[in-house]
Amino acid sequence: MKKNSKNNINNNDNPSKVNRHKFRYQNGTRELLTDEVIVEQPLQIRLSWFDGIIVKNQVFSITMRTPGDDEVLIIGLLLSEGVITCFDQIENISCEEKEDAIDQSNLWEVQLIKGYHPKISSLERYLVTYSSCGLCGTTSLKSLEFKSPPLLNTETNWLSTETICNMPETMKKQQQIFKSTGGCHAAALFDQQGKLLALYEDIGRHNALDKVLGSKLQKEDTISKKYCLVVSGRLSFELVQKSIMSGICVLIAVGAPSDLAILAAKRFDLTLIGFVANSAFNLYHGEWRLQSP
After folding, report:
1. Are 199 and 221 in contact (CB under 8 A)?
2. Secondary structure letter of residue 89 according to DSSP
3. Residue 210's pLDDT is what?
4. Does residue 121 have a pLDDT over 70?
5. Dihedral angle at the C-alpha atoms of 199, 246, 55, 3, nearest 10 degrees?
């Protein structure tokens, strides 16, 4: 049975933000105030699996993230990097407890089930990631092809333009950490009717998306082919890769896509939508999934 470990780094109800002092300068005055600030801490993920009768261990990733949903973040990251394809391939997820509350839950270990061998090519790098840039060294179409992503659903005419326009606003209304700190990104999962299924926030947009994917995979062990992912900010290649690896065929953002993100969407037939605002958006690939306006 899988162990659901603690996700908190301290005894606060919400480990994602802390109170810090600040000086507010305005109209020639200076005032000491308290500000809510988003937390950024390193997370180290170590994998453990059986190679015959030998247990192998290897650091898979070190990433800067906002604490609070580490377990689903790890599951989503393993899915989007092609290490696992379903939740049942994980035997156990646990964190190393320390006396120092600041470092607590920053070290995690994932044990894979006996008989399952992760793709060694995914583990050969010592992956160091940062909150602003996603996984370094993976931004190429060839590397994504080597991960053997699933084929995306190509069913036509199932997503309305009105639903697309409403999703970002629905997500924005639920971004509680952003409202109090102004310092995080969000990712959300919607069904084809525009119902919000999951939403997570993090200082890194790629982490927020991993949390969404991990949460859904943990609950269902499958992800519907007619789900839509919505992210705040811009559309980078890393986000496109995560959507493709999860089998979700629609990725929507309020910001701009990169050139490599568009090329990847075309290569793997992902519907890619950016600059969603009010009743307008830009579609860069995959129009056949949309209903006629």
Report:
1. no
2. G
3. 97
4. no
5. 30
User: pLDDT class for 222, splitting at 50, 70, 90?
Assistant: low
Amino acid identity of residue 134, one-letter, is G
Look up residue 129 and give its two tokens.
Answer: 């990631």
Half-sphere exposure of 193 (CA within 13 A, CB side): 2
Query: Which SS3 state, helix, strand or coil, does residue 104 take?
Result: coil
Residue 266 has which token pair? 């075309």
Would you please indicate which residues are annotated as catalytic (active-site) residues?
133
What is the gyration radius of the CA atoms in the chain, in angstroms?
Answer: 20
How far is it, in rounded angstroms, from Cα 110 to Cα 74?
Answer: 9
Q: CB of 202 within 8 A of CB of 185?
A: yes
Residue type present at position 18: V
Query: Which residues have CB under 8 Å from 37's CB, separation 6+?
Result: 17, 18, 19, 20, 181, 183
Token pair belonging to 217: 């995979």
Strand-strand pairing, 90-95 and 107-112: antiparallel
Please tell me the distance from the alpha carbon of residue 288 to that of residue 212, in angstroms, as a whole number. Answer: 25
Query: Where is 20: in which H helix or E strand?
Result: strand 17-26
Strand, helix or coil for residue 240: helix
Contact 76, 144 (CB under 8 A): no
Each residue's pLDDT tens digit, 227-286: 999 999 999 999 999 999 999 999 999 999 999 999 999 999 999 999 998 899 999 999
3-state helix, strand, coil in the chain (%, to 5): 30, 35, 40
Beta-carbon contacts of 287 under 8 Å, excluding residues fewer than 6 positions away, are 271
Domains and CATH numbers, the chain: 161-289 (3.40.140.10)
Residue with tokens 């060694």: 120
pTM for the full predicted model = 0.85
